[in-house]
Amino acid sequence: MPALKAILCGLGGRGRHWLDACREYDGVDLAAVVEPAPANRERALSELDVPEHLLFDDLAAAAAAVEADFVLDVTPPAVHEEIALGAFEAGLHLLGEKPLSGDFAAARRIVEAGRRSGRRHMITQNYRFNPQPRTTRRLLDEGLIGDCAQLDVSLYVSWADNPGSHYVTEPYMFLTDMGIHHFDMMRYTLGREPLSVRAVTWNLPWGWHRGDACQLILFRFEDGVVATHRGVGCTVGHAPGGHNGEWRFEGPAGTLTWEGSRLFHTHAHRADPRVREQLRLDPAGAERRHPVLHEFVSALREDREPECSAEDNLKSMAMVFGAVASARQDGAEIRLEEL
């Protein structure tokens, strides 16, 4: 089966990751690279071995010059709408880096444009493809701890400390750029949709972010399930669980907990047999080196919606923008359907 041809847009730090992914994945060939910044184009030629004839400074020019199947958008969030509209206008599918957009209205416009074009559009919510959330989702579906009624997530990291980057200078970036991973995993593992949110955010005195980098968030999901997210993005101390954080799922038959890279089932009520068991994580297939790219390519070949489609991702984005709206209103409850 012939490889699908990709136009990669953006050669910043994350763009280099996707450049390597396209080169390593058997089902994809690199048709063109789009990078408007002269310094990045020079690095592409001198350090990244991108042939000059594959290098463009504009998506429209690249799409007109080469045969391609999809666009891989690794540009900053403010550019995502422009890239999406250009891809759909050229008749190309789109795999876009998260977040879908830095603006919820723009995110909805992007999704609607993709729907009208009939092209597939997937967002790179890569965290949900890792073994812990995949195994947890299966175990919850199988009823290991009964019906989960509460999920608590804590995240303590030294996050995004590159001076001058948009992560540091723009408001609520810890919530929007890092939180989207966890909020999406909440939806995925619970298998339920969020209904409302309350959020309080603040900064610590030594923090390096212009926007708030600490948060306490309460989500209410379908079926009465409650989920909390507690985060500090400027810790200079212990960071349990790294960027995954620590997760605790509460059910009538015990808890599932993420402790570092390990998954445990614990049942310690005095009336029942005690359980404290580390669970084996579901094995990852060969495609797990690049699971997002594998899912996207498979969806195109099978003519189906990919997991993490842009339309589905709007529900995770609603959690982000609902939390921001609540934080701006001193923790007022925001109904997500009203955004």
Explain the overall architecture:
There is one protein chain. By secondary structure, the chain is an alpha/beta fold. The chain folds into 2 domains: 4-119, NAD(P)-binding Rossmann-like Domain (Rossmann fold, 3-Layer(aba) Sandwich), CATH 3.40.50; 127-282 and 317-338, Dihydrodipicolinate Reductase, domain 2, CATH 3.30.360.10. It contains 10 helices and 15 strands. The chain has helices spanning 13-24, 38-46, 59-65, 80-89, 104-117, 131-142, 166-169, 173-190, 291-302, 310-328, and strands spanning 4-9, 28-34, 55-56, 70-73, 93-96, 121-123, 150-156, 194-202, 214-221, 226-232, 246-251, 254-259, 262-267, 275-279, 334-335. The protein has a 9-stranded mixed beta sheet with strand order 14-13-12-11-7-10-9-8-15. A 6-stranded parallel beta sheet has the order 3-2-1-4-5-6, with helices on both faces. Helix 4 (80-89) runs parallel beside helix 5 and helix 6 (131-142) packs parallel to helix 8. The longest helix is centred in the C-terminal third of the chain and has 19 residues, at 310-328.
Q: Quick summary of this structure?
A:
The chain is an alpha/beta fold and 339 residues long. It has helices spanning 13-24, 38-46, 59-65, 80-89, 104-117, 131-142, 166-169, 173-190, 291-302, 310-328, and strands at 4-9, 28-34, 55-56, 70-73, 93-96, 121-123, 150-156, 194-202, 214-221, 226-232, 246-251, 254-259, 262-267, 275-279, 334-335.
